[in-house]
Amino acid sequence: MGSSRAFWLKQLHQWHWISSALCLVGMLLFAITGFTLNHAGQIEAQAATVHRTAQLPAALLKAVSGDDQRKGVALPAAVADWVGATLDIDVAGRTGDWSSDEIYLSMPRPGGDAWLSIDRETGKVETERTSRGVIAYLNDLHKGRHAGPAWGWFIDVFALACVIFSITGLLLLKMHAAQRGATWPLVAFGLVLPLVLALIFIH
């Protein structure tokens, strides 16, 4: 019996510290941004907007001219390269909506927004980039907003590590509860408090 308990204690401690190491920085980030999101009304974001214009060369205008309408179509590679070099915006592979008179690319990102418009007749290019600051950037990462698939995978792995951390912590509490009388009252309080607040104050 004693050897079995020692085995499980060792296993639980190992999984607990490994999962805690994996999710430590993520838990700090999500805890801090949970606070900033909860007080978003009191934390004002100062938006900075940059608007730029350029003229598409005649040789490239031919690649986008016309009056056909398409949705979810990327810019030709040569046009995307020119936009990147001229306006310092990476649009390679990004899809946009092609109407009879313009091509419009929406490029939202964490903590900001951006768009690009190309007049299909004149070749006039307009772009606007807005940044709402570091706090808005971190808040959007918390929500996974416009952060891309790689960040989505990170959140999934982070969530799994948190689940392992919590379950192993609960099992360790169970194994040590006999020596720590406040264990289950504290666990029950942690369960009941948010439940009571939700039932009474959230309508």
From TrEMBL:
User: Which InterPro entries does the record associate with it?
Assistant: PepSY_TM-like_2 (IPR032307)
List all membrane-crossing ranges. 15-37, 151-172, 184-202
Q: Does the keyword Lyase apply?
A: no
* Pfam families for this protein: PepSY_TM_like_2
Q: Where is the signal peptide?
A: none
**Per the database entry, which stretches of residues form a coiled coil?**
none
Keyword set, alphabetical order: Membrane, Transmembrane, Transmembrane helix
Respond yes or no to whether keyword Membrane is given for this record.
Answer: yes
Q: Would you say which domain of life the source belongs to?
A: Bacteria
Q: Please give the PANTHER family that the UniProt record associates with this protein.
A: INNER MEMBRANE PROTEIN WITH PEPSY TM HELIX
Stated name of the protein: PepSY-associated TM helix domain-containing protein
**Taxonomic source organism:** Dyella japonica
